[in-house]
Structures are given as structure tokens and as C-alpha cells.
Design goal:
The complex is a heterodimer of chains A (about 280) and B (about 280).
Chain A: E1 2-11, E2 19-29, E3 34-38, H1 45-50, E4 60-65, E5 68-71, H2 79-85, E6 86-89, H3 102-112, H4 117-130, H5 147-159, E7 165-169, H6 177-192, E8 197-201, H7 205-211, E9 214-219, E10 222-228, H8 229-232, H9 236-241, H10 248-259, H11 270-280
Parallel strand pairs in A: 3-8, 3-9, 6-7, 7-8
Antiparallel strand pairs in A: 1-2, 1-4, 4-5, 9-10
Chain B: H1 7-12, E1 13-22, E2 31-39, E3 43-47, H2 54-61, E4 69-74, E5 77-78, H3 84-89, E6 91-94, H4 107-117, H5 122-135, H6 151-163, E7 169-173, H7 181-194, E8 201-206, H8 209-213, E9 217-222, E10 225-230, H9 232-236, H10 239-244, H11 251-261, H12 272-284
Parallel strand pairs in B: 3-8, 3-9, 6-7, 7-8
Antiparallel strand pairs in B: 1-2, 1-4, 4-5, 9-10
Helix pairs in contact in B: 4-5, 4-6, 5-6, 6-7
The chains are: A alpha/beta (about 280), B alpha/beta (about 280).
Chain lengths: ~280, ~280
């Protein structure tokens, strides 16, 4: 269980240019689900998720993750155990690859968490298999593979320490359609097959609509809405007011609605739509 | 060479690429014999996944990379060391990363930079800057610093700076891929609005199939070769082929495909509004 309690974070606190990035955040993130955190650039999404493994400590309030409590001005108890539990994958994480070979790079994490050489290598191999990089990649340089593969190698580095909660900041940014598809497939599998809790920051509302269970909307450092992802995008007035790009199927439903055809909330995909036409056309 | 002297060719094709080869490393060829031509005043997209060679083509045309073999003709001139100065004056390029292109300390100075390099009369400069800042919707932000601008706004400034120099060709090299959805839409709208000016040829390198759908002509690249060229309708009619090379078809085409599977035939559409209209009339019928 992850719970934020009246949590605020101020950058450069006590300085003339102090900026409140997030304010009075009360939020519970469900275990075993995919939660998408959305909002405009500068709305506080990245600040919020950096609290999840205590990279940032709250200025006010607290964050509870299972038995860890992260409080204002107090160093989190047993930081290492927390960071083993919560894996944070940064935006453009492939820039952090640094070892000579992919296998060494992925094994770096578990070694750092105290596993012996052999065990770390075993864990690295398992993680690489998960992200779809087979043994032919082990000895290759991380600089030598495609952008999508690099990012998956970077994620393997996090998976090798087997966290329960995986936080991904813009995992598909800059990837081509094929790379994006593979990335989405990967975190969907981590959730559905390995039951990992996935927290996802993204600008891509197609992903949010099609794959997330819950959506949390941030605006100017505040939580505006927390809802079931499918229901969220049916709220036309809210989307309009906050200038949120609609997933294409929602845009089509709205356009049909204007013509006088009200389609039910149970139509989520192109296939659902085609099925409706077969029955009613 | 004979085609260069053909007046028909000079009028029609502003960019002609013939049997182009290029390698970054000796053992791997990034561009493997690419040929195509681009009509003057058209809006062409080069579509392909990462590593297909599409960005390399853009850099070869802009003379930022030198081909191993093959020819590039721009406006009838063969690109080589003697002509590159002339050709560069006709051609502007907008790159992927907005931060790498903003060099001055304000929007005004950034747009002025190119003009100063071209020794434009300082008395005329303000007018030119205002005109192009307005064109990209940045007139209210002329005195802003880059740190106060979004990625999309920085890209718009880069576009204004390029247009102020009156190029006949503008290349967008994945100019939207690092932007958030709002920024992407801003830039795609500007590109779309620019097209229609028959003096300006637009070449956009992208993996955004929805953008390609709005262009006049598409060149699909795969593994360093041209997979197919044609009008959007022809290209996106080949869902199977595109998916085999890691691309997909636009949303409106996917809906048509799903309807077909249910035995319902609807015409091709390009926008969601058109699609809604078509579906609505089908249901009423």
C-alpha cells in the first residue's frame, strides 16, 4: 500500500525563489494495479513520484509505503530496503547505461544491493529475459543497440533487484511506434503476470485509457481527480475544461454523440464499436 | 546528367535523390541505394521506425553528411562542395531537440541570429522578426528567455528563424518527437498551415502516422531502403505490409478495417469528423 498524507514539497525552501511543486497531496495508490499519473508539464508529476523511493523528502506531511514512513525533515528508516521495494525508472533512462556489456550493466543493481557476483549475474539474466533481450545481447555494448532496446536494458537493471512497485517516468517518450508497443507490452506483463504494482507518468492518453486501471490528474501541484481510467475519459466537461487530449476512440464517440448517437460507456475499443455496428447497423 | 537539363524536371522536382548510399561504419550500410523525387510546393513525409535510415536521408539532403555514392539534386543543382553554399541558402532544417537549437538569450535575438548572418539591414529586421513571430504565434513572447518557454514554443521560434530567411525547402527532422502532446499538436498545425504555400516545399521526417496521413506524399523507409512511395491513401491501404516493418495505420483506417471484419463496408476517411459522418449515415441507412 502506498499512501500520501497531506504531503507538500517546496523546491529551494527558505530561498527567495522557493517554488511549491506539490501541495497537500492526499492519495492512496492501490496494490497490484496500474496507476497513471497525468497532467501538464510542470504540474508536479515528477516531483510526486520522486518521493516514492525517497529521492525527495517531503517538506510537509508524510508518505507511507507498506511499513516504511517517509516524513518531513526525517531521514527515511532503512532507505536501502525501501529502494529495493520501489524501483524508479527515470525518463530517458537509457542515458544511465554505463558498463561495457549489457549483462554487467544490469548486474550492477543487485551487486549494489549486496548480492554476490554469481547471484547478481543470475538475477541480471532473469531480468534481461523479462524485457525480451536474449543471451546474444549479454556481451554486447549497451551503446550498440537500438533506442527501444537500450531503454529495456535500463529497465532490466531495475527489475534485477525485483522491486514490488515499479515507477516509470514517461517510459515511451521518444520511442518509435514499435518501441512504444514493446514497452507497453512489458509493463502490462509485469503487472498481469508478475503482479507488480505499476505507477506510470505519461503524456500519452491512449496508453492511459487502454492500459491503466486508475488515473490521477495533477494540475499546478494539486490532485484534481482520481478515477477509474475508463470513467475518467467519459467526463467530457472535465476534459474540455482542463484541455486534456482525448484518446481517439473517445473523440470519435464524442463526434457521434454530437450527431445524436449516444454510445454506451461499455464501448472502449475499435472492436467494441464494430461489434455495436454489427448488432445495430 | 541529361535529366538535369530537362526543363520539365527542373520545374517539377525540387529534390531529386538518386541511388544514394551511406554508412556511419564500414561494415553497416545505413542507406542502401535510395532514389526518390519531391515535387516543388508539396508536403512530403518520410515515414519509418528508428534505424530505418530516414533521419540520415534528411542529413544527406541538408549536406550535413556526405554520401558514399549517388546524387542529390536540389532545385536543379547537384549537391557537392561547390554548390553547398548556394543550396544551404534555399534550405532550412528544424531538428529534434528544441534545446539544442535555441542559441540566443531571447526569442527576438534568436530569430534575428540568422538574419544578422545574412547581413539583413538592421532597420528592416524588426519588421521581419515581428512578421514571423506572429506567423508561429510567438509575437507576445518576443522578450522571453528560453528557460521560460515550453519545448513546443522553442520549436516554434526555431521555425520562425528559418522562415525569416525565405527558404524554398524546410526539412523537419523528427521536430515533434521530443515534445509533449500539446507541443506536438502546435507544431503539426504550423507545418500543416505552411503547406499550401506553393513556393515552399516541406519535407517532414517522422514516425507519426497521423501526421503522414495529412501530407501530400509519403515515402516509407525500412532498413535503409525505400519500402514504398505514394499518396497517403495508397500507403495506408497496405496495413499488412506496414505492420510487417513495425509501422501501423492511422486510427480512421483501423476503424474501417475493424468494420470490414464485421462485414460492414465504409469508405476511407482522413479525420474523426469525416469518420463520424460516414458511420452516422451508415447507421441511418
Amino acid at each position: 500500500m502506498v499512501r500520501f498524507e497531506s504531503l507538500s514539497y517546496i523546491y529551494a525552501k527558505d530561498m527567495p525563489y522557493a517554488t511549491t511543486a506539490i501541495e497537500d497531496i492526499d492519495l492512496e495508490i492501490a496494490k497490484g494495479k496500474i496507476t497513471a499519473i497525468i497532467g501538464k508539464t510542470g504540474s508536479g508529476k515528477s516531483t510526486l513520484i520522486q518521493h516514492l523511493n525517497a529521492l525527495l523528502l517531503p517538506t510537509k506531511g508524510k508518505l507511507i509505503i507498506e511499513d516504511h514512513v517517509i516524513e518531513a525533515d526525517k531521514r527515511a528508516s532503512d532507505l536501502k530496503a525501501l529502494r529495493k521495494r520501489v524501483g524508479l525508472v527515470f525518463q530517458f533512462s537509457e542515458y544511465q547505461l554505463f558498463e561495457e556489456t549489457i549483462l554487467k550493466d544490469v548486474a550492477f543493481g543487485p551487486k549494489n544491493f549486496g548480492f554476490g557476483e554469481e547471484e547478481a549475474i543470475e538475477k541480471a539474466k532473469g531480468a534481461l529475459k523479462l524485457v525480451g533481450l536474449d543471451e546474444t545481447y549479454y556481451e554486447r555494448s549497451p551503446l550498440d543497440i537500438s533506442g527501444g532496446q537500450k531503454r529495456r536494458a535500463a529497465i532490466a537493471g531495475i527489475l534485477a533487484i525485483d522491486p514490488e512497485i515499479i515507477v516509470l517516468d514517461e517510459p515511451t517518450a521518444g520511442l518509435d511506434p514499435k518501441g512504444s508497443k514493446e514497452m507497453i507490452g512489458l509493463f502490462y506483463k509485469l503487472n498481469k503476470e508478475l503482479h507488480k504494482t505499476i505507477i506510470l507518468v505519461t503524456h500519452d492518453n491512449e496508453i492511459v485509457y487502454n492500459y491503466a486501471d486508475e488515473v490521477v490528474l495533477l494540475d499546478k501541484g494539486h490532485i484534481i481527480e482520481k478515477k477509474d481510467a475508463k470513467t475518467f475519459f467519459e467526463d467530457t466537461a472535465l476534459l474540455e475544461r482542463l484541455d486534456i487530449l482525448r484518446p481517439q476512440i473517445i473523440a470519435l464517440k464524442e463526434a457521434l454523440n454530437k450527431k445524436g448517437l449516444k454510445l454506451g460507456d461499455d464501448i472502449h475499443t475499435i472492436e467494441d464499436l464494430a461489434g455495436y455496428w454489427r448488432q445495430h447497423g | 546528367m541529361s535529366r538535369v537539363c530537362n526543363p520539365f524536371f527542373i520545374i517539377m522536382a525540387i529534390i531529386e535523390v538518386r541511388d544514394l548510399h551511406f554508412s556511419y561504419r564500414e561494415d553497416i550500410e545505413a542507406v542502401k541505394g535510395v532514389s526518390f523525387s519531391i515535387e516543388k510546393g508539396s508536403y512530403t513525409t518520410i515515414l519509418g521506425h528508428n534505424g530505418s535510415g530516414k533521419s540520415t536521408i534528411a542529413k544527406l539532403i541538408a549536406g550535413l553528411l556526405e554520401a558514399k555514392s549517388g546524387d542529390i539534386y536540389i532545385d536543379g543543382q547537384r549537391l557537392n562542395i561547390e554548390t553547398i553554399g548556394d543550396i544551404r541558402k534555399k534550405l532550412g532544417i528544424v531538428f529534434q531537440n528544441p534545446d539544442n537549437q535555441f542559441i540566443a538569450s531571447s526569442v527576438r535575438e534568436d530569430i534575428a541570429f540568422g538574419l544578422e548572418n545574412y547581413c539583413v539591414d538592421p532597420l528592416k529586421m524588426d519588421d521581419i522578426i515581428n512578421r514571423y513571430a506572429e506567423l508561429v504565434g510567438m509575437k507576445e513572447n518576443l522578450d522571453k528567455e528560453p528557460s521560460n518557454l515550453s519545448g513546443g514554443q522553442k520549436q516554434r521560434v526555431a521555425i520562425a528563424g528559418i522562415l525569416a530567411m525565405h527558404p524554398s525547402i524546410v526539412i523537419f527532422d523528427e521536430a515533434t518527437s521530443m515534445l509533449d502532446p500539446t507541443g506536438k499538436e502546435e507544431i503539426k498545425k504550423i507545418i500543416y498551415d505552411l503547406h499550401g504555400d506553393d513556393k515552399l516545399t516541406i519535407l517532414s521526417i517522422t514516425h507519426d502516422i497521423e501526421e503522414a496521413l495529412k501530407s501530400d506524399h509519403i515515402i516509407v523507409m525500412n532498413e535503409g531502403k525505400v519500402y514504398k512511395t505514394g499518396k497517403p491513401h495508397t500507403i495506408f491501404n497496405d496495413a499488412k505490409g506496414l505492420r510487417a516493418i513495425g509501422l501501423d495505420i492511422p486510427f480512421t483506417y483501423k476503424v474501417k478495417e475493424a468494420m470490414q471484419k464485421e462485414g460492414i463496408d465504409i469508405p476511407y476517411t482522413d479525420t474523426i469528423e469525416e469518420l463520424a459522418e460516414v458511420l452516422w449515415s451508415d447507421l441511418k441507412a
